[in-house]
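Q: Sequence in, structure out?
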Amino acid sequence: METPQRNLALDLVRTTEAAALASARWLGKGEKKAGDEAAVSAMRLSFKALDLDGTVIIGEGEKDNAPMLYKGEKLGTASGPKVDVAVDPVEGTNLLAYGRPNAISVVGAAPSGSMFDPGPSYYMKKLVVGPEAKHAVDLDAPVGDNLKTIAAALGKEVGDLVVFVLDKPRHEQLVAEIRKAGARIQLHTDGDVAGALMAVDPDSEVDVMMGTGGTPEGVLAACAIRALGGEMLCRLDPQKENEKKALAESGVDLKRVLNVNALVANDDVFFAATGISGGAFLEGVKYTGKGASTHSLVIRGKTGTSRYIESRHNWDKLMRFSAVKYD
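A: Exactly. Output:
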């Protein structure tokens, strides 16, 4: 038996709260880069206060030249545990810029050397389910067959299922097959980390996520999926010629199916997410004039504990010393 140990996720949530508070000022203003820059700056400053020796393995921004915490960047005071870090200060920059729901700020951490490095891969095909259906899925099975086995595992009919799919031209055939099988669909323009989390959340309407989304987002989501006992099956799925060429030159096996344990190879994983624009997954930032409130999800993989945290931030006190000007 062990005495209670430090839950790093409770430290990490300070970074996602900071990013959410800073970026939510740009909600619906059409300034995608400005919102992202605000979140990146706030998250980077917040990491400086954390006692950890972190290295960014997953840093958003490379595929679209956006502001980012870059791959290989060192985070924390270097005096704590050595960890791999996956970050996305604004997951869903378009959602934030155009005032759409489910933009979130996300961080995952795992012991050094345990997080999958996607190299030059930007996209992967994904299939995500919760714990009850983790042994009922096959990435190479027909869509209809997967939906039948998932429904059976959940004690449902196929027509009861809700499938999260990104609303992209590449998914036209996938959507047709889901409809043919008789399942229901939620189409989202962006935000496949939130979609993956919905698929493993027992309180969510979503039962499964299908389709091709970001590889960095896949590794980020895997931190939470492993912690909650769900499954993600995926395969690198390059969408452009330069990505295909880079992967071919790196010798990556594009036929290999990766599961959640290959993406994060350690149960001692930590995850934190804070809502920015609000939505079905997490409530967004609410400004009160004298401060703000945030809603976050915090997960520790070793214990399987998940916490929903509502925080109230007081400008009068916080702005006396904060390097981030939230107000």
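The chain is about 30% helix and 25% strand.
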